[in-house]
Amino acid sequence: MMTNEASALRGRPAALRGGSVRIEGARKVYGSVRALDDVSLEVAPGEFLALLGPSGSGKTTLLMTVAGFEVPDAGMITVDGRDVTTVPPNRRDLGMVFQRYALFPHMSLRDNVGFPLRMRGVATDERAARADRVLGVVGLEGYGDRLPSQLSGGQQQRVALARAIVYEPPVLLMDEPLSALDKNLREQMRLEIKHLQKRLGVTVIFVTHDQEEALVMADRIAVLDKGRLVQIGAPRELYEKPCNPFVAGFLGETNFLTGTVAGRDAAGAPALALQNGASVAGSPAVPLDEGARALLSIRPEQITLQAGPAAAGALGGRVAEVIYAGASTIYLVDVGTGAPLNVRRPSGAEETLGEGTPVRVTWRASDARIFPAEA
């Protein structure tokens, strides 16, 4: 394991030159399915971009068009300003790490890592030296003579990563490379890959369906749904200011309340009249007219609970269920609007509110987002 990052990176190769990637109007259709629907985005040199979305959102198809394994029906892909839209994968000089590591079981780790150099005609002694050097970069110094079967899953993932960077590609493409690892190892590898990427300076485009993974690792996140780019931005921006209910609901947990726009609260924030007669405030994602149907989104950890009956400026409710979840405790609170509110509080930080306890529910208007309700 890479317990000492400085030691693991000792003798690393010179920093890689991160390349830029530009996708313009990419479209890909399979029969009646639009896998990509006019997707455009740019990735800056040295940036870590996560492609995030549910199954069928188009994230892997988009990655495969950059890699060259798919050719878009329309649009253009450029790397460092070079049009590679129809260039074969082996001529794009991009690094690739797949969900399955695809290591050659009969080859030593040195030969596995050096295989891309062999295909490029690099001499035997030089590719062995470079392979050993890059194995050291990923924390496997001295492992060159071992076989893949002698490694753990996390170590095999590092070999796949070493193989992808040994020829110093300007862009590294990663297709859910951590999904086969157990939870603890996956969490460790997230940070190690992020730290390594920053030190090497390589540009990374990373496909994942894991929202937490995207938040932890990426400089920016591109959220896709049904082949379209829905929103792109920094993790904090997307989490705190989602552009629509899909992003709010997909990127982390949230509560939704439906109501009607009814003026403003005492602080001037837009107010939403709920079906139970209460009024709550939030920050509108887009301008909303008085009387319009709207949807309010509020994160579980941004809600404050206090024991006691409803009061002015607070939503009244009753604790329906208490669930201990280790670091946090989940309170399901019935506020008379249908589904209970999901509220998270740090475990042990405050008094535990038992089931049946009357509570006041509040939040800062700036923490809640109000969206137009779907027709």
CATH superfamily of the largest domain: P-loop containing nucleotide triphosphate hydrolases
Number of helices: 9
Relative strand content: 25-35%
Main structural class: alpha+beta
Proper CATH architecture of the largest domain:
3-Layer(aba) Sandwich
Question: Could you explain how this protein is built, in words?
Answer:
The protein has 375 residues and is of the alpha+beta class. It folds into two domains: 5-245, Rossmann fold (3-Layer(aba) Sandwich), CATH 3.40.50.300; 256-372, OB fold (Dihydrolipoamide Acetyltransferase, E2P) (Beta Barrel), CATH 2.40.50.140. The protein has helices at 5-8, 59-67, 109-119, 124-137, 153-165, 183-200, 211-217, 235-240, 245-250; strands at 21-30, 33-43, 48-52, 74-79, 82-83, 95-97, 171-175, 203-208, 220-225, 228-233, 255-264, 270-274, 279-281, 283-284, 293-298, 304-307, 315-325, 328-334, 341-346, 358-362, 369-372. A hairpin with a 2-residue loop joins strand 9 (220-225) and strand 10 (228-233). The chain is elongated.
What keywords describe this structure?
OB fold (Dihydrolipoamide Acetyltransferase, E2P), 6-stranded mixed sheet, 2 domains, disordered N terminus, 375 residues, Rossmann fold, alpha+beta
